Amino acid sequence: MRAHIDRFFANGPGDTDGLRGALAEGRFAAGDIIAIIGKTEGNGGRNDFSRELAVRALADELAEPLGLSRDAVLDRVIFSFSGGTEGVVSPHYLVVWRTGIRPSRPVGPKRLAVAAGRTRPFMVPEVGRRPMIEETARVVRQLMAAARVAPADVHMVQIKGAILPGGEHDGRNNMVYSRAASALGVGVALGEFDTGDLSDETVARDFSLFSRVASTSAKPGLLRSEIILFGNSPYWEGDLLAAHEVMDDMVDLAAVGRLLSSLGLGDRLPLPQAASDRLAAVFAKAEADPRMLLRGRRHTMLTDDDVQDMRYARCVVGAVLAAATGDPACYVSTRAEHHGPLGGGPVVAIARVGEATR
Fold first, then answer.
1. How much is the average pLDDT of 111-117?
2. Which helix (H) or strand (E) holds 61?
């Protein structure tokens, strides 16, 4: 089994030229695609329709080669899009696909492994509460087993959390609590913290509990959470390897440096062009520190009525990553409840490490 990632740049949310061209050239088959993850230039808020436009356009592109309706494509392939490319972040999308058969024994050094799945449908009273945490954890464990990835080798769990229609009366059926419960579910599955005192009241309150590898957002109208797991496994082959670090705050360049160095890209920042070219994907979660401080200095991101704090966070972290890697095509998502320490968040990179294992 081998995991692949192809990156395409978009001239607008509905631009599918990259995917169409790759399919026409035979670079990969539509049936091998398990997920498409991308950044669009909307505002990242509830009225950001650039995400929906991108998903519809890409699903339509896959409908004919798969011989499926758009709705059937959406049931088969997980589309995870994040709005907001403030500052230098370049709109792009990543096609995640896999080939081969799963071997019964290790085939070599650890290489990138991917798996995708969905939770069962939730009910409104479950969103943002313990049932959502537990079901998320169950599916994450299931994906680890399917991909043969040990907990210590999981480097990112990308989740689009459910927000049920018709549940506006429930104070937890929203983006904050869906993101938070999903992140805690990842932490439970990976044993990242003691779950003895975990309860409904923990969600979006006790931020001493967090995951170092979760990357969650939420989508109104979604009945089931959609989950993509990235890790490394000796049962997979290829030339891709994943790693993660945690940024303690939005300008934690040292954490980014440690991440890139761990992938054998060197200790020099910005990366030399040859090292930058080996990057297949870079992801980060970001938020403006709710304590209103950054390195002991007061920040105004949460009190500025002209620019929303999410847009500041994406802009700042995107600039830090682009400066470090030499490439503005990074996936930066906000906000980050239970993702790393307050004001910080996980940062993940996937890089090519050399010749593919045959």
1. 98
2. helix 50-66
Cis peptide before 270 (omega within 30 of 0): yes
Beta strands in the chain (DSSP E): 2-9, 33-40, 78-83, 92-99, 111-118, 154-163, 214-220, 226-233, 240-247, 279-285, 293-294, 297-298, 331-333, 345-352
Average pLDDT of 104-128?
Answer: 96
**Residue 33, strand partner residues:** 97
Amino acid at 69: S
Q: What is the mean pLDDT of the chain?
A: 96
Enzyme catalytic residues: 160, 217
Q: Report whether 186 contacts 151 (CB < 8 A).
A: no
Token pair in block for residue 253: 């360049």
What is d(CA 268, CA 79) in angstroms, rounded to the nearest whole number? 34
Domains and CATH numbers, the chain: 2-99 (3.30.1330.170), 111-231 (3.30.1330.180), 240-352 (3.30.1330.160)
Report yes or no: 327 and 197 within 8 Å, Cβ to Cβ.
Answer: no
Phi, psi dihedrals of residue 266, rounded to the nearest 5°: 95, 170
Q: Rounded CA gap, 355 and 40, in Å?
A: 32
Q: Is the pTM of this model over 0.90?
A: yes
